[in-house]
């Protein structure tokens, strides 16, 4: 079994640098308010108010927004946190949490 190659400048192994990353993508719906999105993103991801608001605008106008990019276990946890956040108490039509999906980051997509 070959041992990983260590890069002297950073102290990271080649295998550490090549771990795939995943986007957690929040999907738009008509059952949650901007206030809900801002509150949820602040509570779950500790996003500042302005950043969370920008995500709320993007998910509303584009239908989706990337809320975090990380390795798969953290992405799955983040998605599950979104799915478990609950309904928006500000809207009677809100029956549950927002939806989110995990998508692999494409190499070279920066």
Task: Provide a compact summary of the structure.
The chain is α+β, with helices and mostly antiparallel strands and 110 residues long. Helix content is 38%, strand content 17%. Strands 2-1-3 form a three-stranded antiparallel β-sheet.
Task: Outline the structure in words.
This protein is α+β, with helices and mostly antiparallel strands and 110 residues long. The chain has one domain (19-104): Ribosomal protein L7/L12, C-terminal domain/Adaptor protein ClpS (Ribosomal Protein L30, Chain: A, 2-Layer Sandwich). It has 4 helices and 3 strands; from the N terminus they run αβααβαβ. Strands 2-1-3 form a 3-stranded antiparallel β-sheet. Helix 2 packs across helix 3. The two termini are 32 Å apart. The model has no long low-confidence stretch (mean pLDDT 90).
Element layout with pairings:
Elements: H1 14-17, E1 22-27, H2 34-45, H3 49-62, E2 64-70, H4 72-83, E3 99-104
Antiparallel strand pairs: 1-2, 1-3
